[in-house]
Amino acid sequence: MAGTNDGWEPKIVAFVCNWCTYIAADAAGVARGQYAPNVRLIRTMCSGRVDPQFVLAALEKGADGVLVCGCHPGDCHYKEGNYKTLRRYVLLKRLLSQLGVNGERVRLEWISASESEKFKRVVNETTEQIRKLGPVKGSGGG
Amino acid sequence: MADKPKVAFYWCASCGGCEESVVDLAEGVLDVVGAVDIVFWPVALDIKRSDVEAMPDKSITVSFINGAVRLSEQQEMAELLRRKSQFVIAYGSCSHMGGVPGLANLSDRAEIFRFVYHEAPSVANPDGAEPQQTLEVPEGELELPEFWDTVKRLDEVVEVDYYLPGCPPTPKLLANAVGALLSGKLPPKGAVLAGSKSLCSECKLNDTKPEKLLIKEFKRVPYTLVDPTKCLLTQGIVCLGPVTRSGCEALCINGNMGCTGCFGPLDGVTDFGGKAISFLASILDQTDEAAIERAIAEVADPAGTLNMYSLASSSLRRRRMKGG
């Protein structure tokens, strides 16, 4: 891919839960931590609010990768929203693989409010992973 | 008879079932024929394309076009009928959402030709012939339609006024649509001429669906003894009724089959498959990752199951052939 994507930077949409990952991201910022600027955060009240339609729309509209972040299993503010997210994610990934979308482009992570270090690591890792994969090509096949 | 409204029917990439559904009006078709002039219907009437070209623009009151658009010729015919018609109705799942032919978007032209003309076990093609776009004959060069990589919906090639969903639409919906057009009582442009609630609202098994629907596993119909008196979802049978538009009066469920979603999504849904994933995953009562994987593996073909009719109208529309 190198050389063909000059000037290209991965664009990553991250859906983050209000009660955990958003706070972690905020804490990372307050502590003047640094992480890849490729990520665009969208705060939702729960990872369970992340309709698979949102992920598909992000990919359609040009996101090279999508991160969905929620509370650790058992810690959901709404008891079980994150389990729904996990189940949707498993089914969505199977659909995406049939549609030729590399599974590494969509990632689910549990990041609690106190895990700002993990947040930074996940964002940086994902950015590098997507950089290796290159940009999402148009529909291919015409 | 000059002042009777003129109606045209046309088919693009379709199976003929939509034409059949017109015939299924049975004696009702006589009322339709009494009220309108059918000026173009290739499957039933001998009227040529040149006859349509000779009609004044906007002289056809309504054209019902079924089938997906997969050949350049189909786009030309859709454009011709659009020009000649006051209203264009996308008739049936294929012209509404791409339909079953839209599943060809999991491949492209090269892949389809390779299998169909070379690799399919039933093919005998020693010369390796493939469809060509031009052909030399003694009279000159013939031009043939182009086969595209991607199957399109009707509204990707022409402006569509209304959608009549279904695989095929029911005769009742067709009669209602014709009635609405003739009486001038028209819904807002772009409306889907069927129910506005989900299929469950008209399903006879809806009363047996518990308030909180949870299942431990998905089951496949061929391996399951289905109780026809209980909501199929409670039995683990995949039924897309909760995310599918009503209007068919639950024909498939009355035949003990889960809804496959031919009426398409409810208003406000942008991706039928995404919505179906959302709902199916939420009724699965498993929290352990391995158990979730096992249960979801029973939905063996998510694209074919959840986007059976809607792949060409989904957000991604088709498989990424490279660079995904």
Word description of this protein:
The complex is a heterodimer of chains A (142) and B (324). With 142 residues, chain A is of the alpha/beta class. In chain A, 39% of the residues lie in helices and 16% in strands. Chain A has helices spanning 21-30, 52-60, 81-98, 116-133; strands spanning 12-17, 39-44, 65-70, 106-110. In chain A, strands 2-1-3-4 form a 4-stranded parallel beta sheet, with helices on both faces. The mean pLDDT of chain A is 93. Chain B has 324 residues and is α/β, with parallel strands linked by helices. Chain B has 3 domains: 6-100 and 150-183, Rossmann fold (3-Layer(aba) Sandwich), CATH 3.40.50; 106-148, no CATH class; 199-313, no CATH class. The mean pLDDT of chain B is 95. Chain A binds chain B through residues 51-53, 55-57, 59-60, 73, 80, 83-84, 86-88, 90-92, 94-95, 98-102, 105, 134-137, 139-142, and chain B through 106-109, 148-150, 269-271, 273-275, 277-278, 280-282, 284, 286-287, 289, 292-293, 296, 299, 301-303, 306-307, 314-324.
